[in-house]
Please model this.
Amino acid sequence: MRLSQMLFVTLRDDPADAEIPSHKLLLRAGYIRRIGSGVYAYLPLMWRVLQKVSQIVREEMNATGAQECLLPQLQPAELWKESGRWDTYTKAEGIMFSLIDRREQQLGLGPTHEEIITTIARDMIRSYRQLPLHLYQIQTKFRDEIRPRFGLMRGREFIMKDGYSFHVDEDSLKATYQDMYKAYSNMLRRSGLAFRAVEADSGAIGGSGSTEFMVLADAGEDEVLYTEDGKYAANVEKAVSLPADAVASAFTTYEKRETPGTETIETVCKLLNCSPTQVVKNVLYQTVYDNGKTVLVLISIRGDQEVNEVKLQNELTKLAANYGAKTIIALTVPNAEAQQTWAAKSLPLGYIAPDIADEYIKGDKQVHPQFLRLVDKTAVELKNFVTGANEAGYHVVGANWNEQFKAPELVVDIRKARPGDRALHNPEQTLQSARGIEVGHIFQLGTKYSVAMGATYTNEQGEEKPLVMGCYGVGVSRLAQSAVEQSYDKDGIIWPVAIAPYHAIVTIPNIKDAQQVEIAEKLYKELNQAGIETLLDDRDERAGVKFKDADLIGIPYRIVTGRAIANGKVEVVQRATRQSQEIDIPEVVSTIKQWIAAAVGN
Ligand code: ATP
Ligand code: MG
Model:
């Protein structure tokens, strides 16, 4: 392709609304153009990158025996009602765009395709002989994200590869899951990314497991905790660890103490001269179940620890049936305004004890009249602890479960693991923290959708069984941008060779010089003929401008038909290392061919 004929527009300055380097660079280098919030046009250079990523993904998927298909993006609401997800996906914080057609039928724009694929499986899979089966697609997804940002990282319209597998049992599912683990690792390695596979949250249904593939970068929205020995890595949402040991309490007798102005753990510990590990902290949450019922949740946890809201959400979902519901739709820390809607009298905030009376709740049809009291494991083990006295300005010290406080009934792990915590598999290892961009997620779904939608098969014994399912997603557009986030310098993008839009660019420093033009044209032709995807910068611009642009768009190899042509050579510059060398003109094609092969590992 000739730059003189391309839509080639680069910007000198950083666009105002871009925050992270990869977003700035893709805009500046003319790869993407913002059309609306979370909505981007992929311009020709970007489209080539996306097609290369898609091709790597496709090859790795096909190698596992999965088959490509294309599913509809317009999805009938009925299917989502069958699976029970319509309300959670379209109401409140739901992310599905929904619409009503001219026949007054409700439709959703596909954010994901479990419902569609399960309905196909229900109709078409009859027998164990058809299993296992794995279908995937590469397609635009729509999600009305609450905070679209960082360009392609979190768009409202983006490209995803999603795959769904069907099995007779968990063992077969696990085998495919392992294949996917390998396939995903291959995809990321081939795309030139530094990544880590981490244990991920599988939500309340638990499932038998899920792994996220994280591209390591400071701008990542996710926190990963891992150990140096390489034996443990998990998303902080899911991570488990051993907390630091609690300091033994000096309060041997139970007493109520006046502690004015000590609403925080820090201030009460200072006043009482104790460690936060000796305190039972009581944190209030408010949750709304899908039947509209509000439940006030009181969590008791050791004073130095924090609540992991993802773990909490999972516990609350597991308890949904107790409140006649299926799932939760909101989880918040109630502010003063929220408290007014349910509090019978004002709460002694900062001084709450695990046994605060249910009378504080003005129960009605919408609000459950009792606190749901959850006790984190860290709080259960404490002896002679400090906690609130249910009275503003007072705490109790030397308290014990089973004595002053009823023994905890619902004991859970809802503690946030932190860097520096000891690892479970080996307490000598401490957790380290890194930032990551989630580019892929593989998930053992089990029978959640097949049971809800009645997708069954007949086994060898002639019995009807629900299909066992897995699902596997890769954010193709997010992956492409995260490659930039991992690889750039002050001058621009440095594409990994395997996914660069072009391998090489031939730059003519002065297009008025007939010999420069002639050699460049010849090389341009030969390189392309040899399968080396090559650009020709034949614009009537100063050499400096051309070099700057080539650096900005990040093409791996630049060939300059400058002064060296007098000696039958051209200058060849490698973008990543900036190494420059003069190469005999007849050697250029074979040299670059070798470099590419070495870089993409073929
Ligand atoms: P996130 O937690 O980042 O919102 P998710 O858990 O919703 O992701 P999945 O539903 O598992 O993501 O989707 C599979 C993959 O699609 C993700 O691993 C990610 O790479 C990509 N993806 C998800 N949401 C977006 C988005 N809004 N923009 C771009 N890519 C996305
Ligand atoms: Mg999401």
User: Anything to note?
Assistant: The mean pLDDT is 96. The first strand starts at residue 32 and ends at 36. DSSP finds 15 helices and 31 strands in the chain. The radius of gyration is 30 Å.
